[in-house]
């Protein structure tokens, strides 16, 4: 069965990730297309990625990575980036995370919530046997899926001051599965996605001696599927 197109009958999206740079590995190409079409997209990060740079203390890395994420978001037309201040590396799937995510969903009032792949392993195209997924990624995705329902229920987290929000139409999980159920043509957003990932310069420099621009290009090439003359991003879609 051929994949279905990603729906676009919405105006406001909230993209939720665990760390700075998570969104930039592919999903930012879709964001660039959406904002160019006049859609409103906000970013929500559970942590500041402060444990993500070897040899750099969390106190130094956190503000640096936050700044990189804000610059990266601006490249694809996103001006609002919120951080929840959960601790990087030990993000817990539980009530505390759900509460914070539900409050944020109520504040931002999205019709589309997009989050990251949260399975136990992930396998890029052409890579065998694949990689273990981050514990933070797994916790974040489960928290987001739960928090969409929490945000709509006035009796869950009644201590929250934010007004409940039941207007989420779609919950999408970004995936690099070679056969995703839903796809979107992001050809027009690929160059901005590469530029967006390149803004995470200090982070990428710590990962590899390969030039940052080349790393970014390779990662976006890997994260976007090629079909005929199109570059695509894949999603698993759920009703809100």
Key attributes of the depicted protein:
240 residues, alpha/beta, 7 helices, 11 strands, 37% helix, 20% strand
Write structural notes for this entry.
GO terms for molecular function: hydrolase activity, acting on carbon-nitrogen (but not peptide) bonds, in linear amides. One of its GO terms (biological process) is glycoside metabolic process. This is LmbE family protein. Keywords: Zinc. The chain is an alpha/beta fold. It has one domain: LmbE-like (Rossmann fold). 37% of the residues lie in helices and 20% in strands. The protein contains seven helices and eleven strands. The strands form two sheets. Strands 1, 2, 3, 4, 5, 8, 9, 10 and 11 form a nine-stranded mixed β-sheet that branches. A two-stranded antiparallel sheet has the order 6-7. Helix 2 (58-75) links the parallel strand 3 (40-45) and strand 4. Helix 1 (27-36) packs across helix 5 and helix 2 runs antiparallel to helix 5. The longest helix is centred in the first third of the chain and has 18 residues, at 58-75. The protein starts with a strand and ends with a strand.
| Secondary-structure-derived class | alpha/beta
CATH architecture: 3-Layer(aba) Sandwich
Uncertain stretches of 5 or more adjacent residues: none
Determine the fraction of residues in helical runs and give it as a percent range. Answer: 25-40%
> Superfamily at the CATH H level?
LmbE-like
CATH topology heading: Rossmann fold
Percentage of residues in strands = 15-25%
Question: What is the radius of gyration?
Answer: 17 Å
Mean pLDDT: 95
